[in-house]
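Per your request, structure below.
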């Protein structure tokens, strides 16, 4: 009798006795070949229930009737998560939650492409979260106006000091807010940190949590030029990038040859250029260029790469 405990060995025996390939069996049970292969080799780290249910249905119903069973899994799916909660994303979300809950100051740093901005924007969908994405051209007045817009108070024509008082009054009356300042490294140089000092004043004198985020040099600049800001940080997150296991989990609903999967893992994890953005761009190009239900190969990745600036 085939059970969950012996299903893997029974499947390998069935494939061998019937001269069947893993690809042929994966088509019958409507699970990608890559998932089936990892499950049978013992390298599948996620919940195996989906694959085991498909295999049990196949053996219980019989090969000829399996395609008509009601217990089909997602055949040929080529889905990637809209938001992937890897460890970096979990750490960023947790920091935002703590800063909002305890009116604390958090600092998030990470290389470009690691997903910090996308994660912060996901958190900004929550109530009482004000998100601002900065750029190099911002003046102090521009930044103050961006804060005013994010919290929904009318723009006024007073001095910088007057407008900051209005922002502080809003946060002290309306408690429970989080102010997220993304790309904060663009607000300061070795010669000027006025914009960051304004943010520090708002944090010091208001009942509001603040999270600032930027490239790795944000940490260096804060410690070198704004120690009064740096020593107020209650939480600090330094993004580490995707792991091998996370990339494989991100791609688990795609049918990818093992060699091709290894290449995508490298694009997501290597220490030089590897990042979530490069992985995501490559995968989306592959999905556009290849037919539905086609197993993605190394040649497909090469073709997709020829259309990208790597």
């Amino acid at each position: 009798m085939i059970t969950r405990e012996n299903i893997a060995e029974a499947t390998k025996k069935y494939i061998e006795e019937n001269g069947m390939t893993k690809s042929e069996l994966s088509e019958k049970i409507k699970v990608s070949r890559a998932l089936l292969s990892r499950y049978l080799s013992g390298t599948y780290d996620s919940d195996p229930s989906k694959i085991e249910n498909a295999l049990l249905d196949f053996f219980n119903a019989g090969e000829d009737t399996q395609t008509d069973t009601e217990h089909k899994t997602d055949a040929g799916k080529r889905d990637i998560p809209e938001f992937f909660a890897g460890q970096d994303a979990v750490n960023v979300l947790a920091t935002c939650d703590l800063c909002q809950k305890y009116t604390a100051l958090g600092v998030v740093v990470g290389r470009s492409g690691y997903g910090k901005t996308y994660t912060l924007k996901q958190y900004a969908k929550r109530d009482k979260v004000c998100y601002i994405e900065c750029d190099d051209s911002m003046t102090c007045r521009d930044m103050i106006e961006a804060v005013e817009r994010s919290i929904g108070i009318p723009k006024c024509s007073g001095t910088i000091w007057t407008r900051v008082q209005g922002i502080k009054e809003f946060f002290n009356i309306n408690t429970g807010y989080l102010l997220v300042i993304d790309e904060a490294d663009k607000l300061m140089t070795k010669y000027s940190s006025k914009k960051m000092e304004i943010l520090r004043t708002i944090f010091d004198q208001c009942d509001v949590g603040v999270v600032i985020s930027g490239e790795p040099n944000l940490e260096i600049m804060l410690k070198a030029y704004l120690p009064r800001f740096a020593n107020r940080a209650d939480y600090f997150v330094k993004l580490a990038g995707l792991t091998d296991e996370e990339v494989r989990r991100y791609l688990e609903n795609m049918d990818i040859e093992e060699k091709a999967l290894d290449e995508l893992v490298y694009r997501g994890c290597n220490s030089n250029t590897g990042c979530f953005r490069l992985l995501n761009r490559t995968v989306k190009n592959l999905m556009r260029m290849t037919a539905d239900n086609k197993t993605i190969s190394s040649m497909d990745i090469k073709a997709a790469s020829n259309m990208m600036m790597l």
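DSSP finds 15 helices and five strands in the chain.

Regards,
D.
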